[in-house]
Structure formats: structure tokens, C-alpha cells
Specification:
Elements lengths: L5 H17 L22 E5 L14 E10 L6 E4 L10 E5 L5 E7 L11 E2 L8 E10 L10 E2 L4 E4 L2
Antiparallel strand pairs: 1-2, 2-7, 3-6, 3-9, 4-5, 4-8, 5-7
């Protein structure tokens, strides 16, 4: 049987403690996930919305045309431009009213393709890098209308329907 003296035990403990201190510490790595979330609300608006002015119409004359550009800002892909029938809409016909009488001039609204503006609306082109998009709205007064002289007008409501 081996007998250890007190000095041997102290020396052994000191040597063990030195070994613990001198031992290399192993590095570790821990990973985790950090999610980023943001809700984006479309800020779709009209940037330019100008009136359509027609040239002078001669009673009984030919078709006259007018147009305007609707420019939007911040509208996402899939935005649809809708046009209502106007204040004087009757019997599926848009009409401008004479401000001094009860006379009307019939007209129609045309899309960029020169087809009648669809009741469900027309798709707005994809926005450019500045977030702007443009679509042309055309008005056309029908030929052969024997209206009394005066100023005729109507008001249309333009709606941007966006996802």
C-alpha cells in the first residue's frame, strides 16, 4: 500500500490545478433566427388628373375628340381605373348637360385602345421606377346631334381600385 505524505497530496493538487488552468478552452457557436416584418400599405393616389376639353362642336356636325392623361403615384400592379357614368347618365348613355337649358350632348369614354371604357375598369400599366403610371382617357362627342348653343358639361368620378 502506498502512503502519501501531506506534501505529496498538496503537490498533486497544485499540479492538477495548474493543468486545469493551462488547458485550452474549447470555443463554441450558437445561431438563432431574427425575423423582420413590416406591413406595407399602398399609397395609391392621383398625381395628375386633368379635365377633358373638347373643341367647339357645330350642331349637327361630326365627331369631336378630347383626351387627358391620368397619372398615378404609388399604385401597385393590378390597379384598375374605373369611370362612372357621370352626373347626367341615362339609358346607358353618358351625356353632357347644357348649363342654361335641359339639352344634352351624348358622348362616350374611350380607353387607350380606343374601345369603350369597360364597366369593370381598365388596367393601369405597371408603375415605373418612380412609382408613377399613366393611362389615357379619351372622350368622344357623337356626330349628328342638333343641340342648342351653350356650354355643356358633365362630371365623372374616377376610381383607382387597387389590391
Amino acid at each position: 500500500m502506498t502512503v502519501f505524505s501531506r506534501n505529496h497530496v498538496i503537490a498533486a493538487l497544485a499540479l492538477g490545478a495548474t493543468a486545469l488552468v493551462a488547458s485550452p478552452v474549447l470555443a463554441g457557436e450558437v445561431t438563432g433566427n431574427l425575423n423582420l416584418n413590416v406591413a406595407v400599405q399602398s399609397n395609391c393616389s392621383f398625381d395628375v388628373l386633368s379635365d377633358i376639353s373638347f373643341p367647339t362642336y357645330t350642331a349637327g356636325g361630326g365627331v369631336i375628340n378630347g383626351s387627358t392623361i391620368i397619372e398615378t403615384l404609388g399604385c401597385p400592379d393590378g390597379t384598375v381605373v374605373k369611370v362612372n357614368g357621370g352626373l347626367n347618365y341615362a339609358n346607358d348613355v353618358r351625356r353632357m348637360k347644357n348649363g342654361q337649358s335641359e339639352d344634352f350632348l351624348r358622348y362616350r369614354v374611350l380607353a387607350t385602345s380606343f374601345d369603350d371604357w369597360s364597366a369593370s375598369g381598365e388596367a393601369l400599366p405597371a408603375p415605373d421606377f418612380d412609382g408613377k403610371a399613366m393611362i389615357t382617357l379619351r372622350g368622344q362627342v357623337f356626330a349628328g346631334q342638333w343641340a342648342v348653343s351653350g356650354n355643356y358639361s358633365d362630371t365623372l368620378v374616377i376610381t383607382l381600385d387597387f389590391p
